[in-house]
Amino acid sequence: MKQLKILLLFAHPSQSRSEVNLPLFENAKSLPFVTTVDLYAEYPKFNIDITREQQRLLDHDVVIFQFPFYWYSTPAILKEWQDLVLEYGFAYGTNGNALHGKTFMCALSAGGNKDAYRAGGYNHFTVRELLQPLEQTAMLTGMRYLPPFSLFSSRSAVEEKRMPQHIEDWQKLLNALHHGQFDDLQTDNTVIINDLLPSLAH
Amino acid sequence: MTIYFVQAFIYLVAAVITVPLAKKLGLGSVLGYLIAGVIIGPVTGLVGQETVTIQHFAEFGVVMMLFLVGLELEPKMLWQMRNRLLGLGGLQVILTAALIFAVALAFGQVWTVALAIGLIFSLSSTAIVLQTFNEKGLTKTEGGQNAFSVLLMQDIAVIPMLAFIPMLALPELAAAAQATKEAADHHEELSLVAGLPTWAYALAILGSIGGVIAAGHFLSRPLFHYVASSGLREIFVATALVLVVGIAALMSLVGLSPALGTFLAGVVLANSEFRHELESNIEPFKGLLLGLFFITVGAGIDFQILTSNLVIILAITAGVMLSKAGILWLLASIFKIRNSSRWLFSMSLAQAGEFGFVLLSFGIQNHVVPSETASMLQLVVALSMFLTPLLFILFDKVILPKYEAVSNNQEYDTIEEQGTVIVAGIGRFGQIVTRLLTANGVKPVVLDHEAGQVENLRLINIQAYFGDATRPELLHTAGIEEAKALVVAIDNRESAIELVHYVKHTYPTVRILARAFDKGHSYELSLAGADYVINETYHSALEMGGQLMTDLGFHPFAVEQKKAAFINAETNASQTLFEKWQSGTEGERFDQDYRKIFMQLEETILQMMQQDRADKHHSDERGWTPPPKGYQNKFEEGE
User: Fold this and answer.
1) Which helix (H) or strand (E) holds B445?
2) Which residues in chain A touch residue B622, judged by CB atoms under 8 angstroms apart?
3) Within a domain: residue B33?
4) ipTM of the prediction
5) Residue B302 maps to a domain
6) Which of B445, B456, B393 is nearest to B418 (CA)?
7) What pLDDT, in 10s, does the model give residues B418-443?
8) Residue A93: which of B564, B568, B627 has the nearest Cβ?
9) pLDDT band per the 50, 70, 90 thresholds, residue B173
């Protein structure tokens, strides 16, 4: 079995109010094969250390962006991170193949319910569709793109006691990523990776 | 001509040698000038008769000084001072004059002479007092402000005195002078108001004062604009001088005090945008003339009269100063001026002043005071002025420390509250830290060894405690055992290092954040065990540098990047240098003075920046660098 290393880049600008993401992040910290980075804590002034971040990418096989969905996209610091770290000559362009062969995935929480995120719903698009800029970024940089791990109706998740299940799914997902269990799976038509978890072998 | 050069040289060289020396010895510049005067005058006899003439000329320095004082004083402030001016100042003049009058009477002086003496000695020396206040930074203190109101009132009081003293003329002196009356008439001062009836005289005075105020208010701006637009600096200087000299002339012509007139003009111009320009232009003239004035006071001391009447002159001087100080002390207690301010107020104004010289010679001219008495009194005035700087030193060295000690010697506070954070030192630095913490619900325990500071903070509901934070017992009562962090912001370099060292060794779990004065200090603090050290001026200076770059046209965001790159390079270089510094032996370390460290640091930063450039990884150009032109062709080829 593979032993892939996971880099979890966590972006949450208001962690004192976090009900979903912070527990997930704390949970991931206990896994030895996951490197957890709290971007807002490390770069509170957005002064991202490009060299260090590129080295982190080189040292890992799976890259996860973990964030609450903000206006159908990532919080600002993750965009800043992309703009700075995915340099020409490193992530793309001449000799820019540092990320080739790695795996990329988003883990997000969304306030709207699952039905809102589809054609005909009030958000009109699926979360996977809305994340297409990141999907294309993964493609251009030669990374395997996996559909997002998502929690919908996140503002009521705690009250409706959906968190224990979600955390369990999260651990299962991270373990599966660690062992490369998605490598041979066809995911092009999957909207959220949560749907694939039940079919995974243990 | 040659003689003027020689004299000017003697005066200047005496000042150049003595004044810096006096300042270095902590005597103040005024005493330096006085000593210079004594040396070139009575001691070596290099200068002689002309000192009196020069003194009249040099008194103009006082006029200029009052102009400058006026510039600092907006009309609103003057209005706010009115109670102290009339109450404190007025009472001082009246009571002092009355007391000295009574004493002089008791010693057998004729009542007219006694009254004249009383009036003369009621005045103090604006020149010495204000100059010394300036030098010692006492101008804005309570004692300084009150002393200033009294001085201002005295300058105003000179006007009625000049009018009143001739009425005290002694018949026998007047008769003696009768023979030379014609000659005296010839020498009479130029005056516009001589021989006018009283009402016209009053009208002329009011007209001149009104004229000065009106001209200052309405004409000065267009005039200054016109002159400033010429761009000729010396013409602006000339204009400033014209203003002061012109007003002085006008005031003299109508029989008013030139000092008062220029003071008024200064107040009128206090709100003008040309205020600072005027100040900087007049300032050097004022300084030189005042210095010259003090020299002439020193030079004018007649050793012959002094030695033959030594005891009596010393006694009079002591008597005058004691009675003046006594009355000032009394007034201070009535007007609730307390503690060291009361001492300052009483001691600073105890001398007789330069107007004393003026009034004495005026008194001789008008046959009010016999000239033998006058020459002795002149010595008393000079001596009392000579003693004033010494009194200031006494105040500085003996009285002030006593009051500080008294207020600092109270029992150390008992600390009821224990917090997670202890802030040691609550000056400008510690205060900001504390305010941020309290604003966010963290209640620090604050320690400072200045009682006044602690009191101030308590006024704004910050839990501050009086005590010496470097004492282990106090740290213990403040709860250092349970504290998470200690902020070291005390204003003594060595104590700060000791405190850090002690806490790190005794309570290793407490996180120590220390304020450093400079790079060398920051290294010493780090070495002593501080977990986080910050240079007190670093970030504010960077902010200002950034603002400057923005002002110069750099894009604000680019400036942020450059600043970040600078901080990065500086942090790295500083770390490297610290390691080098640390590996040095004790002796070498002491060798590393600030300049050396600074030079090494700059070199390292420069090196790092250049290295980055050579690598095409210049750190501040790295972010948001667009891909090279034509790069997309390669994508298409690849596809």
Assistant:
1) strand B445-448
2) 50, 84, 87
3) no
4) 0.75
5) yes
6) B445
7) 558 999 998 889 989 998 988 888 88
8) B627
9) low
Smallest CA–CA distance, residue B627 to chain A, in Å, is 6
For B18-56, b/e burial (b = at least 16 CB within 10 A) is bbeebeeeebbbbbbbbbbbbbbbbeeeebeeebeebbe
> Sign of torsion, CA A108 A111 A113 A117?
negative
CB neighbour burial string for A35-47, b if at least 16 within 10 angstroms, e if fewer: bbbbbbeebeeeb
Q: How many domains does chain B have?
A: 3
What value does the CA radius of gyration of chain A take, rounded to a whole number of Å? 16
Contact indicator for B20, B122 with CB cutoff of 8 Å? no
Domains in chain A, start-ordered, CATH in brackets?
6-199 (3.40.50.360)
Separation in Å, CA A161 to CA A99, A107, A156? 38, 19, 8
Averaged pLDDT score across all residues of chain B: 80
Last residue of a domain, one of B350, B374, B400: B400
Is the pTM of the predicted complex or chain greater than 0.90?
no
Same domain? B216 vs B285: yes
Question: SS3 for B17-49, per residue?
Answer: HHHHHHHHCCCCHHHHHHHHHHHHHHHCCCCCC
Residue B407 maps to a domain: no
Please identify which residue in the block is written with the tokens 């101030």. B456
Residue A180: what residue type?
Answer: G
- Optimal mutation site among A87, A90, A100, interface B, most CBs of chain B within 10 A: A87
Domain boundary among B369, B400, B431: B400
Instruction: Based on the fold, state whether residues B392 and B272 are members of the same structural domain.
Output: yes
B186 assigned to some structural domain: no
Containing structural domain, residue B519: 416-536
Chain B: residue nearest A141 by CA?
B635
Give the tens place of pLDDT for each residue, B256-309.
Answer: 778 778 888 888 888 777 777 787 788 888 888 888 888 887 887 778 888 888
CATH of the domain at B496: 3.40.50.720
